[in-house]
Amino acid sequence: MDRTDQLCRSVDLAVAAVRDAPVERYADPSPCPDFTVGRLVNHLAFGLLLAERSATREPWDETWSVDDDAPFLRGLRAEQWARACARQGERTASAWTDPAVWDGDSHLGGAAMPAAAIGSLMTAEFVLHAWDLAAATGGRLEVPAGLADAVLAGVAGIAPMGRDGGWFGPEVPVPADAPAFERALGLSGRNPSWRAPVSA
To answer: Where's the Mycothiol-dependent maleylpyruvate isomerase metal-binding domain (predicted)?
Structure first.
């Protein structure tokens, strides 16, 4: 599994997690303290759009704010979000299939970065948030070994910056011999044992 395959597989997992998140659970909490399930779906939607723009080098629209709904979700009912995310996921994955896209510099939301670093970061982002959605809605996420290794490497590369920027919480201790994806979860500040609260 090369880096293109890894990113495309991460997009597939994210889109599947959005599809499997029931709309009636959108107000529920998620492992990300700042996001309900619905806001997490929106965050993933924005990430899919950002990743496509990074691949195509199309500029970030200065009128966009990640605090708002993703542009392609605006005006849609929540029941339509999953299908819209699936369409955007296809565009995002397709944009990263050209090997040349990984070369040189690009941008992520306006911030200049090496394209390969963006691809690695977004691969980790999509899988981590797919797990967040699955955990929040009682589902399971199966991450292939090669992809899990890539996610761990991606998280390890940005963990200090992620904590400084508030994207990651404090590291959650995980056994050194735990599977790679569990170690990635812990390194990103997630508890691999997190479960959605049970309603009274």
So the answer is: 7-134
Tell me how far apart the alpha carbons of residues 41 and 35 are, in angstroms, rounded to a whole number.
Answer: 9
Res 153: pLDDT: 95
Residue with the two structure tokens 């709309």: 23
Distance CA 77, CA 23 (A): 10
- Residue 197: count of CB within 10 angstroms of its CB: 8
Q: Which two tokens stand for residue 190?
A: 């997630």
Residue 192, pLDDT above cutoff 70 = yes
Cα separation, 57 vs 52, whole angstroms: 8
In the chain, the DSSP E strands lie at 105-108, 111-114
Express each pLDDT in 18-71 by its tens digit: 999 999 999 999 999 889 999 999 999 999 999 999 999 998 888 887 778 899
Of the candidate CATH numbers 3.40.50.1000, 1.20.120.450, 2.70.50.60, 3.40.50.1110, the domain formed by 3-142 belongs to 1.20.120.450
